[in-house]
Amino acid sequence: MPEHLRLLRDRVREFVRREVIPAEPVLLAGGDTGRLALGRLRERARSEGLWGLAHPAEIGGRGLPLTDYVPLGEAEGESEFGPAVLGSEHLLDALMLHRHARPAVRDRYLPGLLEGRVTPCYGMSEPGRAGSDPSLMTTRARPACDGWTIRGSKWFMRAARADFITVMCRTEPLGVPNSQAFTMFVVPVGTPGYRQVRELPVLGVEDGHREVRFEDVRVPEDHMIGGRGAGFAVAGERLDLGRTLRAVQWLGQARRAFGLMCRRLHGRTAFQEPLAAKQLLQQHVFDAYTDIQAARCQVLRAAAAVRAGRGAYVEAATAKVLASRALCRVLDRAVQIHGAEGLTDDTPLSRMYLRARATRIYDGPDELHVHTVAKRLLKRYAGDPEAEADVF
Amino acid sequence: MPEHLRLLRDRVREFVRREVIPAEPVLLAGGDTGRLALGRLRERARSEGLWGLAHPAEIGGRGLPLTDYVPLGEAEGESEFGPAVLGSEHLLDALMLHRHARPAVRDRYLPGLLEGRVTPCYGMSEPGRAGSDPSLMTTRARPACDGWTIRGSKWFMRAARADFITVMCRTEPLGVPNSQAFTMFVVPVGTPGYRQVRELPVLGVEDGHREVRFEDVRVPEDHMIGGRGAGFAVAGERLDLGRTLRAVQWLGQARRAFGLMCRRLHGRTAFQEPLAAKQLLQQHVFDAYTDIQAARCQVLRAAAAVRAGRGAYVEAATAKVLASRALCRVLDRAVQIHGAEGLTDDTPLSRMYLRARATRIYDGPDELHVHTVAKRLLKRYAGDPEAEADVF
Amino acid sequence: MPEHLRLLRDRVREFVRREVIPAEPVLLAGGDTGRLALGRLRERARSEGLWGLAHPAEIGGRGLPLTDYVPLGEAEGESEFGPAVLGSEHLLDALMLHRHARPAVRDRYLPGLLEGRVTPCYGMSEPGRAGSDPSLMTTRARPACDGWTIRGSKWFMRAARADFITVMCRTEPLGVPNSQAFTMFVVPVGTPGYRQVRELPVLGVEDGHREVRFEDVRVPEDHMIGGRGAGFAVAGERLDLGRTLRAVQWLGQARRAFGLMCRRLHGRTAFQEPLAAKQLLQQHVFDAYTDIQAARCQVLRAAAAVRAGRGAYVEAATAKVLASRALCRVLDRAVQIHGAEGLTDDTPLSRMYLRARATRIYDGPDELHVHTVAKRLLKRYAGDPEAEADVF
Amino acid sequence: MPEHLRLLRDRVREFVRREVIPAEPVLLAGGDTGRLALGRLRERARSEGLWGLAHPAEIGGRGLPLTDYVPLGEAEGESEFGPAVLGSEHLLDALMLHRHARPAVRDRYLPGLLEGRVTPCYGMSEPGRAGSDPSLMTTRARPACDGWTIRGSKWFMRAARADFITVMCRTEPLGVPNSQAFTMFVVPVGTPGYRQVRELPVLGVEDGHREVRFEDVRVPEDHMIGGRGAGFAVAGERLDLGRTLRAVQWLGQARRAFGLMCRRLHGRTAFQEPLAAKQLLQQHVFDAYTDIQAARCQVLRAAAAVRAGRGAYVEAATAKVLASRALCRVLDRAVQIHGAEGLTDDTPLSRMYLRARATRIYDGPDELHVHTVAKRLLKRYAGDPEAEADVF
Do D17 and D85 form a contact (C-beta atoms < 8 A)? Predict the structure, then answer.
């Protein structure tokens, strides 16, 4: 790692540990106090030059290459609030608006989004259908005199405090290939017909997820994102970068858990020796270490592939699977080492553990990626039997 | 399985599915409504002859051998409320009072306990110390003019609605061997100096666990359980049976999850075929099936060993580890197969999943049992090198 | 286990340890000395009443139910030569001849087979095709004036010392359902056109496996086994019993390795303590113990299902997979605990290890059984959603 | 990877595939033909500028940094004979002679070693003792009038064709710390009293390993390597580099197996579809891919740490464990995918599989490294609880 990057990484790390982690209880409590605290932290991040580190120069960010961002994002990710405080939380939506929104929508939302004043939300999954197969979505948008009328349900949208919603709708009849059958629209919160149906706590954690209804919601033509039928293409663009960014942040969570685990092993004694002296617990340390290293290496490969601008599905999906597994396993071991206390709210581990489980499902369950990555890898060996596939 | 047992098993299963599972939301909501519903269900169980199936004849139960109880307990365990409704929840405390309490205490609590009117609670673990090594407990009881004075803290006691508490205290000075240094006392709720300090939700699930304080709590001499210094001996008696009973109930939870998983695989489609046709999901079915079968077999071995009255640590601890692992793994797969919905409260899986995690910690973490069981097994091979150890 | 069975088990175990295991080097060396030694051991087994314990009464055996045979077969299996010495090695062929051979063939081979004088061999797999899908077999038998003419190749037949070969041939045209397209024939060794092409050492172990050719081999009509087109039906009959019997013997191998592992842990010291004191090695003991117990339980279930005469595929295939995995894992741990010495011929482990690997492939690779067992289990949940599938 | 390195990597890869792999049968057969073939291949490698790529400039090599060598070494490692043909096989011995031998010994052996004419051999392990704890070695060297007299046994030395042996001996009395109690000596083959006791095939593979005896073998003073009592220090120097180099070559083996596996999946059909279409086999591909990537990443970290000249135990031992596991797992899957054929000599997999198993034992068994690496990692968390350990 070059020196300037290491310094920046240290500053992010120090900021997260000094400012964000101590504020976690307030941020978690939410409400007005929580929102004010979040605002103040963002202000401070901005004044220290740490806001929007992952943002490309094209939208006013620092223009750091994605590979350089990896260590910074890990440091951000040590707190679940790091990305919100430092601005990387909504980078995907910002890029999407920047690239694919019509001027009216872009000008209305992008500046606020980039400053942290506007909250976006993005919806694909629908109740009652396997989210792994997006072609099953039934939310439809039909042309109306002055735009489109949307009808359907979505869930697992972080809609609780959103200002606008980007929603994927079928606009073309069955029979049209999936890649041309869906279109994205922006729905401003407050538009008649849109409502939150219910909260969706995830393993008991209220994290802003909602089930929402669109009951003949009307949006003007210029609220379309990308072209008609280009929904999957626009979504696909989000995915490789999105998977990589989230994997980066999970590494931060895993490292925090690793530190907690190691310190605990020194701090507790059983049967006349510190826990740190017991081989079965040392094994947890070794396994956690190698899980994190392996995931980290793959995340760096994904960042390089995304940065190179070529199709990065294999790298990004593999990184997602490995980082997600590493996170879940490391947290499981950290909880185990903390014993019953690890299950309570006395340490940050219980909440981290609960949030981690969902990562193996969001953005495609592990099983889907195992299947699809392997198919892609195998394809490289399908041709001339003598040709060497350049897989590694 | 003999016919009469199969019939009894079917009746328990049918009762749990007809009466208990549909009442789970009410029972979970708790409060007066929940308590009333629980009382009514117990009444119904009693009137159908299904109350107290695991209770030995010596305390007025059916006297079924423990091995016969295994399939019944599995059926009970399909609902987390099964043991409470059918009376097996507090069997350990009933046996302890029956065998080791002085008459005054026994007569005050045992009848109500056996009828489900009295709620006990049992405390070993203390905040800030490794629960796996009970010799680290610092709660002390000192002789006082008319009995004993107790001072210290306990946690992970299900004290929320308890009528009395059994608490393990050091009564002898350091240096006395652990097996003679601790004594158990019954503390009636309401005794001055006893108080609940705080709730201890476990992975966010409020399950009645509390941290409690004993601030110079005075109990009369006849509130001692067993003899002075016999605390570990009495506790040890609970453990083999306790581990076996809980493992039985976990099997019930695992089977319920297995059924949910299989039905879901038939009920969802992705990429033009039912999920049931996908090999990576079939693998979850196979693995869940073999995990449950292996655990079940070991639970039966533990029940036989406990029933035989010989030291059953190896069998019961192994059963506990295998059943706990099976439960956690099966639930993990069931959640995965349900996708994001499996993380919500829309299915019973999320709550089952959260409660399952603690089983790998309670009653000794896996790592402790792996170590201790292996040591015991190895001892059988330590003598005459030609002698065949009868391990299997 | 009832007393008479335990006594018999002890006698088998004692015989194998006293007579067979010490003779292993001679038996392994083979040649005339090996064959003579084998004959003498068989004689002794017969004189001690331990020959043919698994043989049903219908072919002159003891008629022990299969479930009773399990502990005896484990004891046999401790030596790879146990089944050959005690007569259970060729039980499947004996049953097949008994039930499906024409009198001429039966009378020629069955008596010698039952006495251990005649060596059979059975061939399905063919070079160059996935053995998991038997419909791919291309060896054909065509009607000839006085019987059938067979042409094709087989491999992984233990043909080295066989007196006759049972060979599966396509007799019906493509398009006929698999279940009616294949027929089995007995080919006496020495029939013109039959020859061994080459040895097939398995991981370097010369175990009698051969690739063989049938070049217009002519057999009379009465050398057909079962009916024309009934090849798969007859083969299927062998499979459940065959998988169960082999799994029983693998358990014996695994137990022997377990004993070697435990004794070694007491016998070696590193860093001032016996290996037995190290938690990471204790973990190997625990895992080996639970692997064996789980497999054993499933083998007993398979034996019960086969004995009950109903379709036992699920039970027998699961038993095969679990016993095979247990065997491989236990041997892997035993080798690891023996260090480099475990890789040499100084202990029986290296040979056991090498032979174990093939068990995950023979009789259907694990992946096939995982897929097929899960499909069968899932089918039980496919109907009335309220009906409880009786899977466990 | 910079362009010049990629080109060099491609040349090595191409050479190994064009020259070495086709010669494997001849090289394996050994004897004079094998030795001649090996000599010719070395000549060709030298003439193509591919000899001694890993050799530092100080001993006349190309001076490539170790990190640059990693991809080249992988390409070498695709054939087990690659390192012998390309000169990296005996790099450790060359460095040891260069740095620690007296001039007489160095001048006698080093030039031939660097040219591939002289074969060294190195011995630590002794029969009957845990090799993981070198302090248990009992081979002793005692001062004699004109040098030293060595007595003891060693095994797992590749002594079959060695010209000289480097042997670790206790020279100081018990009680002296291990780090000062052992000394290394060079013993020329042919010295009276030295003899090979027996071959030690490893899982049946004759790989040149021998048990040897030193019966009062006399060596002059200048045959000492390093200083008196410095045996462990000199050995330690070999270890980090040695583990890294071998791990690099294992990656090459794993990649070759991966390619074989993928091609086979395209080349076989079962149940009307190519094996490549089956999810359970795709999973093998995914798992093999991620195992190799994770190991490779760690090997690069180890190479960087060794190159940096600081203590690289954690990185090199972790790399050794991960590369060894990856190799074993990938080969296990490749064999499984090849079915019974994978167990025969028809593919290179069976021999690769057999050789792979030993890697989990040589140079310290996995269990030892898990324990020691974790202890080292934990130490970094032992101090100031607020200090951030820089582990990742």
Answer: no
Residue whose pair of structure tokens reads 């999957």 in the numeric block: A232
Q: Per residue in A93-148, pLDDT tens?
A: 999 999 999 999 999 999 999 999 999 999 899 999 998 898 999 999 999 988 99
**In Å, how far are D92, D112, D241 from D89, measured between CA atoms?**
8, 13, 12
How far is it, in rounded angstroms, from Cα B378 to Cα D345?
Answer: 40
Superfamily of domain covering B122-229: Butyryl-CoA Dehydrogenase, subunit A, domain 2 (2.40.110.10)
Interface test with B, best of D265, D280, D282, D286 (most B CBs within 10 A): D280
Q: Searching chain B, which residue's CA lies closest to the CA of residue A178?
A: B271
Question: How close is the nearest chain C Cα to the Cα of B373, in Å?
Answer: 7
Among all chains, which residue has been given the structure tokens 């891919």?
D289
The length of chain A in residues reads 392
Question: Is 80 exceeded by the pLDDT of residue A386?
Answer: no
Q: Tell me the two tokens of residue A271.
A: 């049967």
Using CB atoms, pick whichever of C125, C270, C340 lies closest to residue D340: C125
Element (H, E) at B313: helix B313-338
Chains in touch with C (3+ beta-carbon pairs under 8 Å) read: A, B, D
Q: Exposed, middle or buried: residue C191 (CB in 10 Å: 0-12, 13-18, 19+)?
A: middle
3-class SS of residue A230: coil
Report residue C137: phi and psi, to 5°. -60, 140
From A313, A300, A329, select the one nearest A364 (Cα to Cα).
Answer: A313
**pLDDT in the model for residue B389:** 62
Contact B130 A270 (CB under 8 A): yes
Q: Which of D279, D282, D367 has the most B C-beta neighbours within 10 Å, making it the best mutation to test the interface with B? A: D279
Cross-chain residue pair C378–B282, CB shorter than 8 Å: yes
Residue ranges, comma separated, of all CATH 1.10.540.10 domains in chain A are: 3-89
Which chain A residue has its CA at the smallest distance from C277's CA? A279
Structural fold of domain D122-228: Butyryl-CoA Dehydrogenase, subunit A; domain 2 (2.40.110)
CATH 1.20.140.10 in chain D, residue ranges: 233-379
Q: Where in chain D is the domain with CATH 2.40.110.10?
A: 122-228
- In terms of CA atoms, which chain A residue is nearest residue C282? A280
Task: Give the relative orientation of helices D366-379 and D313-338 as an angle to the nearest 10 degrees.
Answer: 140
Query: Environment class of residue C157 by beta-carbon count within 10 Å: exposed (0-12), middle (13-18) or buried (19+)?
Result: buried
Chain C residues whose beta carbon lies within 8 Å of the beta carbon of residue D156? 340
What pLDDT score does A277 carry? 98
Closest C-alpha to B338, from B239, B253, B245, B259: B259
**What's the fold here for domain A3-89?**
Butyryl-Coa Dehydrogenase, subunit A; domain 1 (1.10.540)
Tell how far CA D124 is from the center of its chain. Answer: 14
- Interhelix angle A103-115/A91-100, nearest 10 degrees: 160
Residues of C with CB under 8 A from a CB of B: 13, 255, 258-259, 262-263, 265-266, 276, 279, 282-283, 285-286, 289-290, 292-294, 296-298, 301, 318, 321-322, 370-371, 373-375, 377-378, 380-382, 385, 388-389, 391-392
Instruction: Give the DSSP letter string of C236-285.
Output: HHHHHHHHHHHHHHHHHHHHHHHHHHHHHHHH-EETTEEGGG-HHHHHHH
pLDDT digits (tens, 9 = 90+) for A342-366: 999 999 999 999 999 999 999 999 9
Is the model's pLDDT at D389 over the cut of 80? no
Helices (H) and strands (E) in chain A, counts: 13, 10
Q: Which CATH architecture has domain B233-379?
A: Up-down Bundle (1.20)
Contact C79, C20 (CB under 8 A): yes
